Queue: 2 jobs
Job 1
Amino acid sequence: MEALILSCSTGGGHNAAAKAVQDALSRQGHHAILLDPYSLQGQAVADKVGRFYVDFVRTVPRLFGVVYKLGEAYTKLQEHLPHHSPVYLFQRKTARTLKQYLEKSQPDVIVTTHVFAGEMLTMLRNEGMKLPPVIYIATDYTSIPFTQEVQADRYIVGHKDIVQSFVAAGLPEWKILPYGIPVNEAFQSRMSRPDACRWLGLDPAKRHILLSGGSMGFGLDGMIRTLLPVLEEHPDTVLLVLTGSNEELQKSIHEKYPGPQIRALGPTDQMPRYLQACQVLITKPGGLSTTEACVSQIPMVLVHPIPGVETINARFFESHAMARWARDPEQDLADILREVLADPAPMEQAQATLQSNAALRTASLCSSLVRRKG
């Protein structure tokens, strides 16, 4: 079976979910290509689209929240409007290029983890192109604006309790499958905390807190300052700060905090092991990163949600007792961290209900839809 997986580089979660499905398909003996459709117009175009989104969210998050609210309002009104959204129409040029690619490659099934790519496929279908089965994977814990413009054969969502948000957006309930959000198999390969520490060269006798700003790097320096009193109270605790590819930030943290209790980590491909080695994760509530944490059963404290979808993600995890949400990190992050460190068991037990084999189930669904069509 030939599978095409479409994603876009607007944050890291879409690509990570897509890669998890690609790996699962490969393990089942299928050939799967992962593609950013904007790259068909040149990698510079794909980079520009991704960079615009990330810069927009990072520099003016409140404005992004306003735009998200407008998108939600448009979703509610769209069934009464005679035309498609501007977001849908924006995909027209790339959709034409994607059509040429599909005519040459002839995949047996298409999986998309991004609404933009989903809209491109819908546009081609509306123009009369015959497509193979299409599976859309939602990578947040709600139906985001414009999801209703994606015509897919199946929709995979993160949890049974969010199915109704997709139904409310106008999607047929029988097509919605609450498999969970696909994550890399490595997050499900359990390793004991001491073994994970030794794997990473960390001291198993110490407690480790992992601080992440996600792929966009929100507010790390301010949160470190907020957590200094907790570190002073617990000299056996080490704060590991994920700075990603931001070398300037990594250098700054090393210079400001030269002691042994704060370590800045650069780019890493060992995220599954860090989640298994640490006692608590402090992170923004991206759909993929929170799912990876739950699968790893590491207690979470959520901070700095992007207004809109990540606020909804934070509300979901807090309401299901899978995380705590520090709404004002400067005021409440340290106290919440103390509480989680003192009693992590209830959160770990709640997270056990979200154990996900979504990638393998999605791969099997691909095969099933192809057989059914054949």
Job 2
Amino acid sequence: MKGCSRRMSRFDHVALLALVTAESSPDIRASSLIPFISDKILIVVLPVAVYWFFSLIFQACDDNGWLSKYKLHTPEEFLKRNRIRKRDVIQGVLIQHVLQVVVGIGLAYFEPDEIVNEQQNIVTWVQRIQLGKEYLPSLFAITGIDLLSLAEKVNLPAQCASAVGFAGWQVAVAKTIYYVLIPAFQYALAAFFVDSWQYGIHWCMHKNRWLYRTFHYRHHQLYVPYAFGALYNHPLEGFVQDTIGSLLAFRVAQLSIRQGIYFFTFATLKTVDDHSGFLLPWDPLQLFTDNNALYHDIHHQSWGMKTNFSQPFFSFWDRVFGTIWKGSDTGIRYERGRQLAKQAHVLEIEGVANGSSE
């Protein structure tokens, strides 16, 4: 009992000191991730910068033949199958990014500065844990378990089982909840919302002929996707699906601006990676989920266009609604496309040669 009392006294003193310090410490403005750029601006411009930076990396790989053995399509397919010039794609993406930045900065102007007091928040969770611990004996009693008697059998005094003060483990648990569990839940909720929002809109675009021809067909002019074309959409479709969807996910998941920077930058990188046309075996973005470059590339093929609507994170909704690609001849179909493009390219060269010889 004395050992328990000594532990209670020591931890109570530390917890009381933390509580007084936290409650007396003023709220502070969240510091910027990059000193000379406000986080409210960074959340808008960083995803755009990441989009073009990594698109350039994939383009360099394409131009120089690097990692060519991991390409899903051949250069001949790129030349013969796509129905839109690359410069037109870049122009279309720039229009969407300008719209995205204007809306984002406009909303950021009215967004209040974030105020944080991490110490106070942790102490609040310690208090919640303490409150929950006090009710544990009564809660277990409902199931017929005498928690206090159980504590005595393992040589833990009953007072320690039911009335230990703010112990070190409670502070550790509170920090784990605040720094790990809550953010993990927020990110998971945001990802689930984005996937749900985009699946619904994407599915409708394919099921309604007018919507497809008027809006979504533009994106499917790329039968051979590449990184720059990830966000090549009709401006209205891009605004509703990407900009509005992201804003709603931000609100629903109650992300902080800093969390929004991380989440939207990661989502952008994932989207670029999925459209890159490279199936890299060591790419972490293609390992943590089956919704990878091949998964989305199948959707861009004429034979897979009615499947694999899910993007950008998981394949959950495709599995729920049975729209996931289930063909066992995927490799054969890809090889057939390569051969047809190669033959068409050879015929074109021969035609040019014959024309010039005449």
